[in-house]
Amino acid sequence: MESKVSEGGLNVTLTIRLLMHGKEVGSIIGKKGETVKKMREESGARINISEGNCPERIVTITGPTDAIFKAFAMIAYKFEEDITNSMSNSTATSKPPVTLRLVVPASQCGSLIGKGGSKIKEIRESTGAQVQVAGDMLPNSTERAVTISGTPDAIIQCVKQICVVMLESPPKGATIPYRPKPASTPVIFAGGQAYTIQGQYAIPHPDLTKLHQLAMQQTPFTPLGQTTPAFPGEKLPLHSSEEAQNLMGQSSGLDASPPASTHELTIPNDLIGCIIGRQGTKINEIRQMSGAQIKIANATEGSSERQITITGTPANISLAQYLINASSADLDPHGRNTFTA
Questions:
Q1: Buried b / exposed e across 103-131, counting CB within 10 Å, b at 16+?
Q2: What stretch of H or E contains 143?
Q3: What is the pTM of this model?
Q4: Which among 265, 336, 322 has a CA at the least distance from the CA of 295?
Q5: How sure is the predictor about 317, in pLDDT bands with cuts at 50, 70 and 90?
Q6: Measured between alpha carbons, how far is 177 from 284 in angstroms, rounded to an integer?
Q7: Which of 35, 32, 45 is CA-nearest to residue 72?
Q8: What is the DSSP letter of 340?
């Protein structure tokens, strides 16, 4: 949520993020994008839908408060229409409520719940909507899901009250936004190469190949899949990309948990930003993919470099180093992407 002051008074511009399943997103987009186009035109709000083949997508609605409430009303009524249509083909007698999931910075959830749950109780009683604030933060973020369910009118009233709370209590500190994970695409390892499956084709995947090769240097086992190139018609073992990352993030030697070791890198200050990423997203991604613990030392006065300490198994450290080098290579004009250990 953000408020902006424009010349000539307070013009409140809100940004609300919604978490939706693929089917719900399809309903909002409509045939050839007609539904979302109509919602944008009639509400005056900006409606953006996150990219990707994810089971979940983020729908971001931005605009003046009245435009946001119009967009919300259109979404809630569209979902109710979908429920009515699905019920005409089923034997169910009771109509399920419309349900929307907001994504809210965790630092604002306390104000939304209120002392001893007083605020959330007040919102439930005055609007007739059910409101639930998730206890845990969404993965790799500092945001929580707030689920609202009820009739479209109850939902619209509820969203209005939530927006008032958000504007009165802005988020504290940096917010790491929730990014839904892509659906796991199958990965094949053949001839020391990694391929992702897209439709009927196997597409070479250089990043996964590199990760795979680094992981295999640390293990006495035969690489996953075959060691000879694959021929058409050969059966190859399939792994989801998540499994592949798990396998590559571990040293799969005979000792199930090899001892953790520590490795230090020195990084030029001008490259540290692209390794950390916006609000820490990149470094969190590297931690997750490599399975290593990564600590970045604070900048010291007069020094042009920062110290990075990587802790984990040899395979974890290799993957983390590779990913750090890969992140910074884009920004280094001299192509120096190997740092001093």
A1: bbbbbbbeebbeeeeebbeebbeebebeb
A2: strand 143-150
A3: 0.54
A4: 265
A5: confident
A6: 12
A7: 45
A8: B
